Amino acid sequence: MSFEGFPVEVSPIYEGERIRKEDMYVEFGGGKVPYKFELVLSAPMGEVEDESVKVVGPDLTELKEGESYPLGILIKVSGSKIEKDLEPVVERRIHLYTNYIEGVMHLNQRYDIWIRISKKSVKKGMTSLSWWGKALVRLFKAEMPFIEKMEVTFITDPEKVKEWYQKALEIYNARDARARAMKDEDVDTFYGCVLCQSFAPQHVCVIAPNRVSLCGALNWFDARAAANVDPKGPNFPIPKGKCIDSVKGEYEGVNEVVAKRSLGAVKRVYMYSMFGYPHTSCGCFECIAFYVPEVDGIGFVHRGFRGSAVNGLPFSTMAAQTGGGIQTEGFLGMGIEYFRSPKFFQADGGWSRVVWMPVELKERVKDAIPAELYDKIATEKEVTNVEELKKFLVEKGHPLAAKLKEAAAPPPEEKPEAVPAAAPTLEVTGVPVGAMPVTGGGIKVILQGAKISIKKMVIKRVEKK
Ligand code: SF4
Ligand SMILES: [Zn+2]
Predict the structure, then answer these.
(1) Where would a tag sit more exposed on the chain, N or C end, judged by fewer CB atoms within 10 A?
(2) Are residues 66 and 168 in the same domain?
(3) From CA 249, how far away is CA 279, in angstroms rounded?
(4) pLDDT over threshold 60, residue 252
(5) Kind and range of the H or E element at 132?
(6) Among candidates 458, 454, 455, which has minimal Cα distance to 422?
């Protein structure tokens, strides 16, 4: 494929290229910008102006260097083989193909995109977003031949982005709702995705009716449509095979395919648990589930949340622990639609194990939270640290409260000389401490993927002299 005449190079070798803040000309979306989206819509042949690229609002050189701006990427496609199911599939590839462009970095998806354009590329002549659009048209048509016509519109006008953003949210929501009526038991094939292996080489997404991809952009229908129309692409069928454990969600077929596609790095996967053999996480998860060892509960934080979660860690720190395609007990990247799954962490206690989530996220998944638990799940409004969380859970009568009260009860009185022989023996074997931040002395140590086994714990009173 030729990109002759382009001011910058376009090639898979630029995938994974990072653009630091100091090197960026401008950025679009990301945490500082509330309105941003990418959306692909299918349309009849007559309604798509083939290979047209428009910029609605200020173009690159009309923007102030070093700043962050709203952006909407709207792509219309048509073709005789194109069906609605393929819209999210094409949409997810915007991430891949944009990253082929020298000096353009694309992260995340849907309403959460974050793009940086490098100073170097603008200097080389990439002075308009239309170059990006032209590259996308060429790449998409070459890689997904079922796309017969394609038009790209970049919206930078803030008012128009905001207007389209609301429409886009409704469309994402309608797509997600489709898979809700199905169960994993209804199908004998799940689907996989390895699109993110350029960033996380061992990562394989397993997409089932009850487990949306962790980027949230592909559900089972979408992945199936992608695997059918582009069998050599990043999506592929995974015959479920024998069910090894229906509660944890372990399947022979899934283990086999994931082992093969991760080149042996991941041998077992539990679809409905964050402990033992959790699903791997690449980097574009919509939110993170984290274990809170002090209350033996699970907390959640979404990408847009500013500030620290109840464990004292902001999203970005936890994202670094979670991503990269490794299995990390105690940290798990997930798609927001998984909250609505009937199998939501079913091996770990499901909703009765959930202790904390930001208000914004709680509001967003309100429909999925069992009514009797809604007030028992804390947010940043009620608690800001683990001590406050403990009190909150006990006061509200959270399902974990009984265990917490038991743990807080004072130990029976004992004579000092009897202590060594009668000391309590605490067996903590296989407790997932991956999420356990150890603090003290002004430093913070995070034990990742560690298991601590304590055979015996002796507590002695030290007499002051
Ligand atoms: S997060 Fe998973 S489903 Fe989404 S693009 Fe990456 S590999 Fe594919
Ligand atoms: Zn990813």
Answers:
(1) C
(2) yes
(3) 11
(4) yes
(5) helix 130-143
(6) 458
Closest residue by Cα to atom 5, ligand 1, is: 195
Give the DSSP H/E element, type plus range, for residue 172: helix 158-178
Asked whether 204 and 259 are in contact (CB, 8 A), the reply is: no
Instruction: Label the pairing between strands 149-155 and 53-56.
Output: parallel
> Rounded to the nearest whole angstrom, what is the distance from the C-alpha of residue 215 to the centroid of ligand 1?
6
124 and 192 in a single domain? The answer is no
Q: How many domains does the chain have?
A: 4
Q: Is 458 helix (H, G, I), strand (E, B) or coil?
A: coil
pLDDT at 432 over 60: no
Query: 281 vs 103, 162, 167, 451, CA distance in Å?
Result: 25, 30, 29, 20
> Which residues are CB-neighbours of 42 under 8 A, at least 6 positions away?
76, 77, 78, 82, 83, 84, 86, 87
CATH number (domain holding residue 314)? 3.40.1470.10
Report pLDDT digits (tens) over 355-386.
999 999 999 999 999 999 999 999 999 999 99
Q: Give the Cα separation of 34 and 28 in Å (integer).
A: 11
Q: 365 φ, ψ to 5°? A: -110, 20
The first and second tokens of residue 417, run together, are 């000389």
End-to-end CA separation in angstroms for the chain: 82
Please give the Cα distance from 415 to 460 (Å, whole number).
11
Residues 195 and 171 in one domain: no
Q: What is the mean pLDDT of the chain?
A: 90
Confidence of residue 179 (pLDDT cuts 50, 70, 90): confident
| Ligand with minimal distance to 108 CA | 2
Give the closest ligand to the alpha carbon of residue 217.
Answer: 1
Q: What is the Å distance from ligand 1's center to 196 Cα?
A: 6
